[in-house]
Design a protein that fits this description.
Radius of gyration: 18 Å
Largest sheet: 12 strands, mixed
Number of strands: 18
Order of helices and strands: EEEHHHEEEHEEEEEEHHEEEHEEE
Shape: globular
Distance between the termini: 40 Å
């Protein structure tokens, strides 16, 4: 039974291409509803759609319940649910078990860095292995999407500013992150295609407990990361309150919340991605993304 307000928002292109459209998944991996066909006046950018607030979400809910404008899954190509955020904000060292695998102390405050939005690709698009790196790694992450503008947000109201969640892979070039560029993380994190997102923006009403979901990553079918969002050191209310002390959060902003243990760089010996590999990231209730390295 679908909860009131529970939706799986997507962006997609039709089989023949064309401009991106907004839609909804009827269920995880199921058929789509063409929201842009049902309501042509709605924006086709997810960021602009989210800026319309509850009015836009209510319209989407009505379309979902109408039973019209259905599309078979195989007739579309899914895109990243948010393709044009103002900001992609990331959190480092935010899983207790990830800190343990590195033998580092648990941070006393969130460690914040960023990716450029140009790194974003869709849930089944290819990750391009850059010639500049020999140490490309995987990081499955829970991503929260902002739905309401705010600055100096209190922890008690922080979840009101989140519209929903999606699955992310914080692809990382460890040589550039850890040894090059003065050990500043940005370049190692933001090569083109280093932020697969999807498959859907799952509204928070559809998730029973965001802080108790299984989170996994496999490479070529081999399970590499297997943990739970219960291991988060700084949970979403704390992260939203912390980040909003420094920047104004706006609809469409994406917050990657950190990765669990099992990344390649800390394996003995280290394991890195190579061309031809397939990376599958999955979070319970949110869905699965799968990207080939080329």
């Amino acid at each position: 039974m679908r909860l009131a307000g529970a939706m799986r928002l997507v962006r997609f292109r039709g089989a023949t291409g064309g401009e991106p459209r907004l839609g909804l998944e009827e269920a995880a991996g199921g058929s789509l509803v063409d929201l842009s066909a049902a309501e042509p006046a709605l924006p086709r950018s997810m960021r602009a759609f989210l800026e319309s607030g509850q009015r836009g979400l209510a319209t989407a809910q009505r379309v979902l319940e109408s039973g019209q404008h259905r599309l078979p899954r195989e007739a579309v190509r899914l895109l990243a649910p948010v393709g044009d955020p103002e900001k992609v904000i990331c959190v480092g060292l935010n899983y207790r078990d990830h800190c343990l695998e590195q033998d580092v102390k648990i941070p006393k405050e969130p460690i914040i860095f960023s990716k450029f939005p140009s790194a974003i690709i869709g849930p089944f698009d290819d990750i391009v292995h850059p010639e500049e790196s020999n140490e490309v790694d995987w990081e499955v992450e829970l991503a929260a999407v902002i739905g309401k503008r705010g600055r100096y947000i209190e922890e008690s109201s922080a979840l009101d500013h989140i519209v929903g969640f999606t699955v992310a892979n914080d692809v990382s070039a460890r040589d550039w992150q850890m040894r090059r560029n003065g050990r500043q993380w940005l370049l190692g994190k933001t090569f083109d295609t280093f932020c697969p997102l999807g498959p859907a923006l799952v509204t928070k009403d559809a998730v029973a407990d965001i802080h108790n979901l299984s989170i996994r990553c496999s490479v070529n079918g081999r399970l590499m990361q297997d943990s739970s969002t219960s291991q988060l050191i700084f949970r979403l209310p704390k992260l939203i309150a912390w980040v909003s002390r420094f920047v104004t959060l706006v609809p469409g902003d994406i917050l990657l919340t950190g990765t669990p243990p099992g990344v390649g760089v800390f394996r003995k010996p280290p394991v890195f991605l190579k061309r031809g590999d397939e990376v599958r990231c999955e979070i319970e209730e949110l869905g699965t993304i799968c990207n080939k390295v080329v």
